[in-house]
Amino acid sequence: MRVKNITSLVSDIIEVPYKLGGFTPEEGFDCFSFLYYFYDKLGFNIPPLDDLGYGINRDNYVELYEANPKRMLRIMFRVICKLTTSGKLNYLEVPDTLIYKSNGGDSSGIYIGQSNILVLDVNLGICVIPRKHLKMDGVLIRRWSQK
Description:
Layout: H1 6-13, E1 23-24, E2 28-29, H2 31-41, H3 61-67, H4 69-83, E3 85-86, E4 97-102, E5 105-113, E6 116-121, E7 125-130, E8 137-143
Antiparallel strand pairs: 1-2, 3-8, 4-5, 4-8, 5-6, 6-7
């Protein structure tokens, strides 16, 4: 079943914990699976991991990530860029993806409206942070188109 209402989807996944290799709300999410799940539930055309062309699937995902987390993050961002078009920080639209550096690491979030960003924090799980409180450097905005 596809969820069409972002508010409903956010309330269903808020506080879901971080878990490397998790792919469902019951398992928890990592930053890659969080984005995949969210956009898939909104009805966007998200290909399965096996179809991405990087030799990644659910069986080897955690092993590949643990072996080289930076490589996996680069792959994740490449995949997102292939599936989206460029957006602008001053003209955010629901549900734009934000890819940014925060506290020295790469992070991502989803703009959910009213200046709020949905993020997956390793300590807090999925939470909503007002944009003005989010420390972001080198922000890349990606816009999804419904297919």
